[in-house]
Amino acid sequence: MYYNTNKFVYFSIYSILCTPGEIRACTRGQMKCDGETQLLVCVKGHWVTSFCNPIYICIDRENEQGRCVPRR
């Protein structure tokens, strides 16, 4: 029962944070930025949050590939 409740809460939060269909909207190895320091990496068809090191900043390229690059 406790596990099911946890799972429900997780999916509720996820559905609030993500747009419909976003879970399968990425391809393996794809990356994009979420703000200045967060880098989203595509793992098994859904986005997983990663972070750039403090001396780096996340930059989105034209082809939707996020990268951590040194701050200028």
From TrEMBL:
BP GO terms, sorted: chitin catabolic process
Molecular function in Gene Ontology: chitin binding
InterPro entries: CBM19
Pfam families per UniProt: CBM_19
Every Carbohydrate-binding module family domain range: 26-60
Name of the protein in question: Carbohydrate-binding module family 19 domain-containing protein
Species this chain originates from: Zancudomyces culisetae
